[in-house]
Structure formats: C-alpha cells, structure tokens
Write a structure and sequence with these properties.
alpha/beta, Aminopeptidase, Alpha-Beta Plaits, 2 domains, four-stranded antiparallel β-sheet, 12 helices, elongated, binds nickel (II) ion
Length: 395
C-alpha cells in the first residue's frame, strides 16, 4: 500500500467518531423532503468550521467547495439529506431514535450526509494533493418528485463550478460493511407513471350500437400495450409496461362515458422509455380512431435511469481495490428496477453511483430500505469516507 492510501485510512479513522456522532444527531432530528432547513444550517455550520466555502442554490441543501491546486479538474461528490415521512422502530437505534413523529431516516441519508462531512474533513486536510477542486453536494429531496437532484442540476450551480465528473453512493443492507458493489452501464431503472383517459359515448348496456364503449376499447389498448416490449423493442433491452389500475363504469346495465387507465413504465434508458411512449400514443390513437373514441395521455417522467459512465465506474472499482482489497469489491451483474434521482446529474455530467455495504446482524441493519427498522452498521464509515476521498485523489 502506498503512502497516500495509508494517509487516507488514517484520516478516515481519525474522523470516524465525528461521522458517527454527526449521523446520530441527524438521525434524531430528521427532516422530510424540501423541509431540510435545520439540516442545511447544520451542514453549512460544519463546513464553515473547516473554512470551506458554501453556496445555497436552492431553499434547502447546499454545496461546499474545496479548492486544491490549480487545474481544470472539478469532481463533485453527492449526498442526499432528506428523511422519509414515516415513524421508525428498532432497539438497535434506541439511543438516537427520531424525536420527530412522522419523520425518520429510514433510507440511510443521515449516513450519506455524515459520510460526506467526514470526507470533507479528510479532503480538506489533504487539499494540497487535490488537483482542481471538489464540489460537495448536499442535495435535498431525493425522495420526492421532481427530485432535489433535478432542481439542483437545473439551477446551473454545478455548471457554474465547472463540474466535470460526479460520484454518489447509497447504503445497502444486503452487502456487508467493508464491501462495496459497483457496475458500469445501466444500474437503476428510470421510473415513469402514465395516466390515460379513453373517452367514448355512454348509453344503455342493451343498445351498444348507439354508444362508443370505452371499456371494450380499454381492453384492446391494454392487450396492444403488451406488444410493445415483445414486438417493438430489442429483446435484449429490458422494459416493463404495466397497467396497474383501471377505473370505469358504475352499474351492470350502463355503458360508461369513459375509462381511465393508470400504470408504470420501467426501462434502462430514456431513449427506450420515449420509444415506449411513442408506441403507446400510436396504439391509443389507432385503437380509439378505429372505434370512434378519443383519448388523453399523460406520461410523467419521474427519474431517468442511473447509467454509470464506464470510466467513472472504473475509477470507483480501482480505488476500491486499492483501498479495500479485491475481495471487498463486488462487481454487480444485473441492474436494479428501483430509481434514484442521482440520474439527473448523469444527464449533465459523466458520473457513477455505487452501493456501500451497511448490513450486519450486530447492528440489526439488514432490514430493507424504507422499513421502519432500517439501520446501518456505522463501521461502514471507514470504508465510505476513505473510498470517497480515494476517488478524488486517484482521479
Ligand atoms: Ni435513499
């Protein structure tokens, strides 16, 4: 192991208690999406103590800037800071359980925030070894549309800092502390919700010839939608079109005026999602025209897919191997169908996202994300802060 890696590990140990205490403070005082006012003040205060410049482009959340040696390189590290609107449970967290009913850090964002504050300390101590600057992103509202990542990207604040690459991570209860999981290419799905109204002509159920029956048309539309993944898309490209809800009619003997369909589309690129949207529109237009009905169609793009830049994913992998050892770097084979608003940064800058192992029996931290007992094994701070710093110092 070379000197810089030793130094990073020493620093991660030095700030371990700081990260644990910070996480526990945040855990006790959670704030839900777009309401992270105290959390933001706390982060700004912590960064100012280190002499790190801060900016507040949105109402909540902030960015911090660490200046290293003159260079064009600008690396952004991202943490999300919001809690979930829920109550928590769990003996393992007894000493620092949420003191706010209806708000709890059950997705690990308290860990992400404390980790980035710890990483800031490490990098600030080693800033004479940084080429260019590091932008620390403490973003609000990962859990709520339109997503803090989207608003921050659209604010232009990161472009103004000249960000070149962006890295982020999420705690993962299915992996052991000390380990990470990384994957180049598609990592998490884009999430889309759609709402459709098929407008026909109502009437008596016994005189269908005088009506335009939206239920029969809806049935045809649903059938046709299933041909999009199976007949319109490349079979090696995973996608889902699901109608999750249908609403129409009021009685046995009435043909209703309209039928409503609601559902979700999942894919691993916006290009595929938009192709699905185009086919859905064509099917709706064709089927309704053939029957004399009309339609409305809303395709609400949520978060795009998280697709890791090859080079950035390789930086995470190689930094992980150097700092944690090959045996602790898991190469993921398959992407996840869940979404993440980190994807918005990747629309603008090359970047990569990885998973950090935080699940253990000792910490009772193998519960799924968003479970009321969700917890993290704090030992993982040693891994995460060292790796985040390593990514900057190796890139
Ligand atoms: Ni999360």
């Amino acid at each position: 192991m070379s000197r810089i890696q030793d130094l990073i590990h020493e620093k991660a140990e030095q700030y371990f208690d700081y990260m644990v205490q910070t996480r526990r403070y945040l855990h006790k005082n959670p704030e839900v999406s777009f309401k992270e006012f105290e959390t933001t003040d706390y982060i700004i205060h912590e960064l100012k103590k280190l002499g790190i410049e801060t900016k507040r482009p949105l109402e909540t959340g902030c960015i911090g800037i660490i200046d290293g040696n003159p260079s064009d390189s600008v690396i952004a590290l991202r943490a999300d800071i919001d809690a979930l609107p829920m109550d928590e449970e769990g003996d393992a967290k007894k000493e620092f359980m949420s003191e706010r009913p209806g708000a709890a850090h059950c997705c690990g964002h308290d860990f992400h925030t404390a980790n980035l504050l710890g990483t800031a300390r490490i990098l600030n101590d080693l800033k004479d070894r940084i080429d260019g600057k590091v932008v620390l992103i403490f973003q609000p509202a990962e859990e709520k549309l339109p997503g803090g990542g989207r608003l921050l990207t659209e604010s232009g604040a990161l472009q103004n800092e000249g960000v070149k690459k962006v890295y982020g991570m999420h705690t993962n209860p299915n992996i052991s502390p000390g380990q990470i999981a990384v994957k180049a290419g598609p990592l998490m799905a884009c999430t889309v919700e759609f709402d459709i109204e098929i407008i026909g002509k109502g009437g008596h159920a016994a005189a269908p010839h005088t009506t335009v029956d939206p239920i029969v048309i809806a049935a045809q539309v649903i059938q046709q939608f299933q041909t999009i993944p199976s007949r319109s898309l490349d079979p090696t490209e995973p996608s889902v079109v699901t109608v999750g809800k249908i609403r129409a009619g009021s009685a046995h003997n009435i043909i209703p005026e309209k039928a409503e369909l609601m559902g979700t589309v999942r894919a691993f690129s916006m290009e595929t999602a938009r192709m699905i949207k185009k086919r859905m529109e064509e099917i709706l237009a064709g089927v309704t025209a053939a029957s004399g009905a009309t339609f409305t169609f809303h395709f609400n793009e949520g978060y795009p897919a998280v697709v890791n830049d090859e080079e950035c994913a390789e930086t995470i992998r190689s930094s992980g191997v150097e700092l944690l050892g090959t045996e602790n770097v898991i190469l993921m084979e398959r992407p996840l169908m869940a979404g993440e608003d980190f994807a918005f940064y990747q629309q603008e800058f090359p970047g990569a996202f990885f998973f950090l192992g935080t699940g253990s029996d000792e910490a009772d931290s193998k519960w799924s994300w968003h479970h009321p007992r969700y917890n993290v094994d704090e030992k993982a701070f040693l891994t995460s802060s060292a790796l985040m710093a390593g990514i900057v110092l190796n890139t």
